[in-house]
């Protein structure tokens, strides 16, 4: 078979095989060093990503448009006024009166639901 086209996929050169084996013992320490380097690079990459995300969050907070200040409506309680009457006069049209009264109680920190003449109440804005 002088003119055969067959070529083996296995290395037939014994000298090359021995040379590769010698490099293999040297290559193990290089492999460990490369793994350590890759681990450090991975940790550095994760740190950069975390710092980037945190920085973007901080910038987003500072770049957010300011919330317009809502003027608080204050009301001086007149003699004979009750929370129910005040709520009916000042609540939004479709809101339940009891919900608006609860808002008045919370915004003013009232412990009991009674009000006295001359008392100044803040009215919630909905």
TrEMBL record:
<feature type="domain" description="LysM">
    <location>
        <begin position="73"/>
        <end position="123"/>
    </location>
</feature>
<dbReference type="Pfam" id="PF01476">
    <property type="entry name" value="LysM"/>
</dbReference>
<dbReference type="InterPro" id="IPR018392">
    <property type="entry name" value="LysM"/>
</dbReference>
<dbReference type="InterPro" id="IPR036779">
    <property type="entry name" value="LysM_dom_sf"/>
</dbReference>
<protein>
    <submittedName>
        <fullName>Peptidoglycan-binding protein LysM</fullName>
    </submittedName>
</protein>
<feature type="transmembrane region" description="Helical">
    <location>
        <begin position="40"/>
        <end position="64"/>
    </location>
</feature>
<keyword id="KW-0812">Transmembrane</keyword>
<keyword id="KW-1133">Transmembrane helix</keyword>
<keyword id="KW-0472">Membrane</keyword>
């Amino acid at each position: 078979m002088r003119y055969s086209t067959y070529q083996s996929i296995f290395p037939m050169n014994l000298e090359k095989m021995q040379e590769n084996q010698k490099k293999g013992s040297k290559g193990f320490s290089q492999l460990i060093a490369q793994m350590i380097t890759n681990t450090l690079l991975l940790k550095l990459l994760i740190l950069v990503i975390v710092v980037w995300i945190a920085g973007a969050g901080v910038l987003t907070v500072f770049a957010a448009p300011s919330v317009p200040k809502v003027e608080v409506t204050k009301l001086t309680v007149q003699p004979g006024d009750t929370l129910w009457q005040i709520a009916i006069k000042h609540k939004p049209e479709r809101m339940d009166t009891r919900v608006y009264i609860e808002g008045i109680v919370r915004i003013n920190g009232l412990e009991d639901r009674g009000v006295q003449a001359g008392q100044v109440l803040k009215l919630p804005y909905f």
